[in-house]
Amino acid sequence: MNLSNILNIKHTESNNFFLMAGPCAIENETMALRIAERIVTITDKLAIPYIFKGSYKKANRSRIDSFTGIGDEKALKILRKVAETFNIPTVTDIHESNDAEIAAQYVDILQIPAFLVRQTDLVVAAAKTGKTVNLKKGQFMSPESMQHAVKKVLDSHNENVMLTDRGTMFGYQDMIVDFRGIPTMKKYATTVLDVTHSLQQPNQSIGVTGGRPEMIETIARAGIVNMVDGLFIETHFDPANAKSDGANMLHLDNLERLLTNLVKIRKTVISL
Hints:
Layout: E1 18-22, H1 29-46, E2 50-53, H2 72-86, E3 90-93, H3 97-103, E4 109-112, H4 120-128, E5 132-136, H5 146-154, E6 161-165, E7 168-169, E8 175-176, H6 181-186, E9 190-194, E10 200-201, E11 210-211, H7 216-225, E12 230-236, E13 250-251, H8 255-271
Parallel strand pairs: 1-2, 1-12, 2-3, 3-4, 4-5, 5-6, 6-9, 9-12, 12-13
Antiparallel strand pairs: 7-8, 10-11
Helix pairs in contact: 1-2, 1-8, 3-4, 4-5, 7-8
């Protein structure tokens, strides 16, 4: 996939990794704009191609009383406002086939969640919108098996497809990243490493997913060393009170230092 095919993406000539980052879920307009403005400032400074990430609804919840969203249309309109305000592309995840056409009216990239990436109708519906499709590797799938998900997009006459590794289940309550999968998946499509979801600790007895955010820089550094094309990072100015996935998000105040270090590592690796 040619990154330049994504509308309004900047700094594609910098030879940097690209970044998909933002909150787990759209909570309100003020928080979305605040987070986007901060990340745009940082990525412009470091010449990192940037795509704002935010889920307009959350369908995969452990408990029935978990936060699922503020309303589909309301959240999608906020995503469009972020795009128009900062002239940047946006990505959101979809969960059912009829979500594809609706979400495609508001965002630039449609993301297929890891638990749903084998759902052919969903993948094909996303591909047929003509939007870029980001396929998250199932926690239960091998890197090699993702070539078939990619082929579903390509066979739907859409060449704009990327893959994202978000870790593999290790027992019931932990995730691991097998970095051997990066060069494998890069054979099939542009490949992203989802740093924060790779550090989740799912299936907790309280029904709220845990995480290990102190390991974010460790995983991100390893991804850059292994020449991943892009990084996916969920971030928030108040993770402790975020309505979704706060346990594994990066505090927004720590993003600039992290990205600054990663850009330096990227330049070093390329020069070797």
